[in-house]
Amino acid sequence: MKRTLSILVTLALMLGVCGFAAADQKPAGSLTNLLLEDSAHWMNDGFAFDEATTEYNLTAWLETYGIRFTPVITGGAEQTVTVTMSGTGIEAQTIAVGNNESFVLNLTQARQSSNPEGTGERGIEDDCVYEVIIEAANATYTLNVTRPGLDQYVEKFTRATFDLGTIDEAEAGKSMTYWLYVPEDYDASKEYPVVLYLHGVGQMRNEATDVLLRNASATTFVYYGKECIVLAPQANYTDLTGSGGWADSNFDLTVFGNGAYAILQDVLADYSTDASRVYVVGLSMGGQGTCGMLASHPEQWAGAIVNAAPYAMDENSVLRLGNAIKEHNIPVWFSFCEDDESVSFEQSHDVLIPVLDELGVNYAISIYTPDDYLAPMRHFCWAPVWADEDILDWLLAQNNDEGAGTLNGLMVTDSALGEVELGFDPGITDYGFDVWEETYGVLFRPVIGGADDSSVTVTLSGSGIEDESFTLTKNETFELALDQNRICSNAEASGTRGIEDDCDYVVTITDAEKTYTVNIHRPGVSRYISDPEWGYDAPGEEYFTKQTFALNLIEGNEDDARQMYYWLHLPSDYDASKSYPIVMYLHGGGQTRNRADDIMVRNTIASAFLAKDKEDMIIIAPQANDTELAGGGWSGDEMQLTDFSKGAYALLNKTIADYSVDENRVYLIGLSAGSVGSSVLITNYAHEGVFTAALLSADPVYGSYVGAARLARALADTDLPVWYTQHERDATCWNQETGYNHGYTVFSNLRALLEDIEQIEGNASKCRITSFPYSMYARPTSHFTWANMYSDDMYLDWLLAQSK
Q1: 728 to 235, 278, 452, 463: CA distances (angstroms)
Q2: Angle in degrees, 0-180, between the axes of helices 705-718 and 742-761, rounded to the nearest 10
Q3: What is the tens place of the pLDDT at every residue in 645-695?
Q4: What percentage of the chain reaches a pLDDT higher than 90?
Q5: What pairs with residue 301 in β-bridges?
Q6: Ordered strands of the 407-414 beta sheet
Q7: Is the pTM here over 0.90, yes or no?
Q8: Is-cis flag, bond preceding 71, omega within 30?
Q9: How many of the other CB atoms lie within 10 Å of CB of 363?
Q10: d(CA 559, CA 571)
Q11: What number is the average pLDDT over the span 6-32?
Q12: DSSP 3-state assignment of 119?
C-alpha cells in the first residue's frame, strides 16, 4: 500500500542525494530535480524528473485538488527558478521559487470549465488542463497537467427514485434519488459484487448529480474498470420530517439509511449479484452511515470502507459497532486525518480504535498526518483512499462465505410488501409467514457458502402449482409464483376467477447439513363475499352482497329498464342512528365483460379495508360491463362521462340517500381504467362537493393533454385531495421499444398544469403523485401497482383521515 511515511523518506533521500550530486557540475540556478506530491497521493510514485526532458504530460487523479512541487536547484539557497502557472479556473501567476522551496498548483474545485451556466459548487465534472512552466538556468521545463472530469463516468450511471413512504409512512409521497451503475457488458449469467456508496453532507441540499460530481467516491470503481454494480443514493432532508443523514450517533439508521438499504435489496433482487460480496463504503456523514449499516445489518456485508468518520459516539454505540464487526468477521478499512477540521481526530479515531483493539477486532487503517497535503481541507482524506487501487482491490477481494454448500442466509421479497423479515438463523429450520391477499410471487435469495459451484436443493409445492424440485447454485435466486387463479377449493369454477380462496405453499431448502422449511399462507378474498347464486358463503359477518342498480335513475336515462350489478358492504352492526364513511371502488379493465364477482375476486381492492380491519364503513363496487351497456368503460375521450360513470355517480348518491352516511367522508378509489373513471367523476362532478378524497392507482391509462387540463382545473378549483400512484414503467402504459410511457406523460402534464394554475391564479391543489421505481418487484406485471399500494396501511389511513 502507498504510505505517507515511505513517500516522505523517499523525498528526503532524493533531496539529500539527488539535490546536491550535480551541484558543482551545473550552472547556478539549474534545475537538477523536481519532486512532486499530489493531494491524492496518486502521481507520487510515477513521476521521474530527467534534466534532458523538458516537457512532461501528467494526468492527475479524478479527485486531485492540488499538486505540490519541490524544485532542487544548484548554487545554494539564494538561487531561484521562475515558475508560471495557468489553467482551468485559476488566475495565471508567475513566482520566484528557491531551492527546496515548494510551490502548489491548486486545481480548481468547482470544475465548471464547460459548464459556466451551472449554479453553485457542482464538483469535479469537467476535464481541466493546467500548465506549469519552470524557467531555470539550464532549460525551460513545461509540465502539462490534465485532470479528467467525472462526467464521462457519471454518464454510465442511471438515475431513479425511491418512494420513502414505502418504508416510513411519515414520509408518504416523498422520494429519494439514487444512481445506479451496472457494467456495460452486464451478463445475467454472471454474478456481480455490489458496492453501496453513502455520500457526505456536502452532497445534501444540492442537485442530485452532486452525489457523483462532488467527489470521485462512487465513480472510482468505474474509472478503474472494476466489474461490480455501484449504488449511490442521495440523502436530502430539506423537505422531510425525519432527521438528516444516514445514521445517528448511536448508529441507528435514519429514514435515508433505511431507504438506502431498501434500494440495495431491490438491486440485489433485480440483478445477478454475488450475495457474498456486498460492500458498503462512505465518507464523512456517509462514513457514519457506513457504521450504521454495519451495526444494523452486519450479516449483509462482506467488507466496508469508512472515511473521516464516525464522531460524537458514546461507549454503547462503539461497543455495538465493534461487536457487530467482530461477530460477523467484517473486514473494515478506516481512514482518518490527524488534523481533520470537520471530524475531530480525538472524537473519532481516539474513541473508536481503542475499543476495537480491546475487542480484538481486525481492521485496516490509513492515518494521514498534518504534513500530508489534502486540499481543499484535510477532512478530504477519502481522496487518497479512492485513488489507491490497491485498497479497492482489497475491498473487492473480501467474501463472507461460511461453509461449503451450507445455507448461511435467506433473503425473501414478496411482490406486495417488499422484504420479508424472516429472521433467518442457521440453527432454526422451520419458518412461516403470511403474505398479503394480492401477492403474486415470492422471491428467495439464499446465501450459500463455499465455492461458486456450491449448491442446495429446493422443492416447491402448494395450492394450484405443480410440485417442483431443482438444484440451486451459489447466489442464484428462485421465485415461488403463487397461483393467480386461486380456484384451490373451487375447482368447478370456470375461467380466470382471480384470488378468491386461501392458498398454502411449502418451500424446502436442503443444504449439506440440514433441511429448512418455509410455510407460506395467502388468505383468500372469497370470505368477504356472500352470494348463494354463485356459491359464495362468507364465513364471517363482514361481507359484500350482490345488488342491482336501475339505470333509469341516471339523469337522461329515465326510460332505460336495464339493471347493472354492484356489490354492497354494510357494517355487520349497521346502526341508522350513526353515520358511516362511504367508499366507492371503480374496477379496472380486467373486470369488464366478465361475471360480476370478478370485481371482488380479481383483486383485493374492494375488500382491502376489511382485510386491514379499518373502521366500520359502507363500500360499493359497481361493475361496468359493456356487453350490457352502451358507452363502454368509465371514460370517454377527454375525460367525458359514459353511461358507466354516470351510473356510478348516481349509485353513489342513491346510497348516500338510502343509508346513514357521513357526507363529510365520501371517498373514491380505483385502479387502472377505474382510476381513470374516478378522474372522470372528479373532472365532471367534483364541483358539486360530494367527494372528500380519492386514492387512485395505475392511472391514467387513457387521456390526453386536454383531458389532463380539465382534470387539473377541477382539482385546483375544488382543492380535492387526490393521491395517484403509478409504476415508472407501467407495463400497460409503457412502450418498451420506444420508451414512451403514456401514463407518465399525462402525469407530467397534470403536474405542469397544476403548477401553472397555482402560479397564475393561486389555486393550490392537494394532488399527490407517487411513482413506484422500476426496480420494484411486481407480478404478474408492473401495471399491478395497486397490489403494493393497498398492502400498505399508509395509503388507506391517509384516505380515511381526509374530511371536509
Answers
A1: 21, 26, 35, 32
A2: 40
A3: 999 999 999 999 999 999 999 999 999 889 989 999 999 999 999 999 999
A4: 36
A5: none
A6: 418-420, 407-414, 441-448, 478-481
A7: no
A8: no
A9: 18
A10: 34
A11: 50
A12: coil
Better-predicted residue by pLDDT, 329 or 270: 270
Candidates 147, 286, 119; CA nearest to 203 is 286
- Of 260, 276, 268, give the one whose Cα is nearest residue 182: 268
Mean pLDDT confidence for 328-336? 87
pLDDT tens digits, residue range 367-394?
887 666 556 678 888 988 999 887 898 8
C-alpha cell at 178: 439514487
For the chain, the C-alpha Rg in angstroms (whole number) is 33
Mind listing the pLDDT tens digit for each residue in 489-501? 333 344 455 666 7
DSSP type of residue 241:
S
Residues 6 or more apart whose CB falls under 8 angstroms from that of 466 comprise none
Residue 445 cell numbers, joined: 435469495
| Residue 441 CB contacts under 8 Å (≥ 6 apart), including other chains | 414, 415, 479, 480, 481, 482, 777, 779, 780
- What is the spatial distance between Cα 459 and Cα 471, in angstroms, rounded to a whole number? 9
**pLDDT reported for residue 725:** 84
- CA separation for the pair 440, 132 (Å, rounded): 65
Contact 667, 694 (CB under 8 A): yes
Q: Which of 155-164, 527-536, 739-748 has the highest mean pLDDT?
A: 155-164
Q: In what order do the strands lie in the sheet with 544-550?
A: 536-537, 529-531, 544-550, 563-569, 618-622, 580-586, 661-671, 693-697, 722-727, 767-772
Burial of 166 (0-12, 13-18, 19+ CB in 10 A): buried
Longest distance between any two alpha carbons in the chain, whole Å: 118
Cis peptide before 384 (omega within 30 of 0): no
d(CA 674, CA 676): 5
- For residues 92 and 752, the model is more confident at 92
Query: Which of 84-88's residues contact partners 24+ apart within 8 Å by CB, and which partners?
Result: 84/131, 84/132, 84/133, 84/135, 85/130, 85/131, 85/132, 85/133, 86/130, 86/131, 87/128, 87/129, 87/130, 87/131, 87/145, 88/113, 88/126, 88/128, 88/129, 88/130
Q: Tell me 225's DSSP state.
A: T
pLDDT at 21 over 80: no
Q: Which residues pair with 564 in a beta bridge?
A: 549
| Among the listed residues 683, 670, 663, the one whose alpha carbon sits nearest the alpha carbon of residue 803 | 663
Amino acid of residue 457 = T
**Residue 76: which region, alpha, beta or left (left: phi > 0; alpha: psi -120 to 50)?**
left
